[in-house]
Every structure is written in C-alpha cells, then in structure tokens.
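Let's practice the habit of predicting before peeking. Look at the sequence and jot down your guess about where helices and strands might fall. Then scroll down.
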Amino acid sequence: MVESSLLAPLHAWLVNPLDGEVHDAIERLRRAPDVQHVAVMPDVHLAGDVCIGVAIGTTHLIYPQAVGGDIGCGVLAVPFDVSADRLAEPAIAGRVLAKLAGAVPARRWNRKMTMEPPHDLASDTLSDPRLDAVWRKQGTLELATLGSGNHFAELQVDGEDRLWLMVHSGSRAMGPAIRDFHLERAELADSCCGLRALDANSEQGRAYLHDAAWARRYAAANRQQIAMNIGTILVGTLGATLQWDLAITSDHNHVELEPHSGYPFWVHRKGAMSAAHGQWGALPGSMGTASFHVQGRGCSQALCSSAHGAGRLMSRTAARRSVTTRELQRQMAGIWYDYRRAEQLRDEAPSAYKDIRAVVRAQRELVKIVRVLRPVLNYKGV
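Done guessing? Here is the structure:
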C-alpha cells in the first residue's frame, strides 16, 4: 500500500521545542500515506510507533498505531455532595485508602467477584470469534479494574471546597487485543513510516472501526463502574453521594469521522482528547499536581483537539534513577496516598511529568479553563 503523499501540514502547541526523537517521529508521520493534517499537543512525548499527544486526519486510511493499544482510555470526573474537609482526619483518609484497594483492584477481579457486563457490550459481538474469546476470558474479568502505570482514582477539591472524584482508566486487555489482531491484517503503508494501515471502506477497515468503537464503550463502562464502587465506599465512610448529573467524561485514544474545514477526516487521537466548541473535558495533572475541567474552543488547526494531561517529562527508567522514595514523599506532601507503595510509585512522581500549568498555558487557543482542582487523596495501582 503505497500512495503518493505530500508532507502533511503541521500545527503544534508546545511547552518546549521538540527533542530530536520526537521531531523525527512526527516527520515520519507527516510523510505517511493519506495523512492530511498533523496536530501536536503540548504534552507530546515519545512512545512506540506514534508519539503520545498527537492528532492526525486522514481521508480513508485508518492507522491503528495512531490510536494505540489502550483504545478508549480516558477520564471521568464526577462531584460528591460534600465538602473535601471530610477527608481531613487521618483515620478517615486511611479507611478510604484501605477500602479502595479492595474495591478497585489494579489488576484482575477474583473470579468469584466477576461482574455482570453491561448489556450493550455483552449483546454486541466483536468482529472475530478470537476477540470474543478474549472478551469472555479477560474482558469480563477485568471490568471495573483500574490498571497500573499512570491510571488512577483521585479525590480532589475545587475552588468551592467541593469534593470531586477523577478516574483515569481504559480498555484493559481488550484494547491491545483489538489493536494487535487488526495490525496483523493491515498492510504496510510504506517502507519509510513503518506504519500499517487499513482502508476505512474495506471489510477489514470496517471491522477495526467496529471493534475500536466497542473498546471505547468498554473503557467508559469500566470507568463508570469504578466510580460507582468508589461511591459506595464514600457513602459508608463520609455519607457522600455522587452527583451524576454533573459528570464530565472524555477519552483520548480513538478514531472517528469528523468534519474539519469542510472535509470529512478520520481523526486519530493518541493521547489527545476532543475539544470541539463548548465540549467538556477533564485534564489531569500528575498524582501530586492540579487538574483542570475545561471546555473546547473548537480550534480547527488542532483538529478540535487538546492535550490529555501533563505528559511524561522523564521515561520510567529515568524517573526511577532520579527520584528517591524520600523525594517522592516530599513532592506528595499534604496528599493522602499509600505510603507503603512509595518505592513502586517513584516513576509516577510529579517531577516525572511536565508542568501541567505550562501545558494548559501552551494551549490557550484550544480550551478554556472552567475549574481548577487540587488533589486530596490519590490511589494508584502498581
């Protein structure tokens, strides 16, 4: 599959100039067949075949690598009907943390605790029996599990002292299984970019789009069930109730057909969330820094996209080399978290991420800030 392709237009909103590897990866992406537009977000960083923090537009080719493996990964933010000062007592905060570890596993549920899947997932088959087998064996088991790495559940406080929950999680085993299955059936786009593509109008292209949409629904159901389980904990410990009518939800690994500048584009976002005019989004910082609720400005040059968070500044290896347990504890001062896991959490230290406020400043054209929240209690899987 080789098509003649001009160098795609590039628009970027950056905190710092691109380093060499990121620059080279984006230049390869600009030369990929049918890539018509590339938008680079301020949280951009190197990852695999396509950088995280990038949105591209194509007319008919679908690039699974430009969506990534954790299809539908995103953020859910929902407030409680209590103020955050209810978590000020160490005994109460400790009780909440202890219950979170039991109610929101990072890895897998015990089979005795396997949940009944939502009807729209259970009733909609995937494109191949082998993917349905992954769903039955792993997907049902991992529903309402958080995952590890940068996934988290965090209790936050806004400027009016209201307590909020933010959940960042994705499609668990299902996303990588769908990506890998379809990549095996995709054609090499060309020898220079190293990416594999599917034609959106082909049977295989339609199958990928169907499965990717299914994974987005799975990821959304995963976050919702995690939030409901946490809500049950806070009803018992704080008498707090989730206010679902004020919930904000966004995801940042997906592909969908959208009109831009009068043309229909297949917009691929990898580590970038949709920011159409007036669209709500939740923009997390690191585990020790502020998060933001925003509304999109509908910037066409950015393919109506926004950064999805702070973005890594250091690789995990570099963070483990430079951040000690004591330094992590210093950076997390005033925030409740499981101190027993400090050694395993060093690569998630706030200093391993870009300055979220600098990221937000760099994309003033893309979103407007509606609400700023600071972390009160953070739970991460390891």
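How did you do? Residues 10-313+353-380 form a domain with the tRNA-splicing ligase RtcB fold (CATH 3.90.1860.10).
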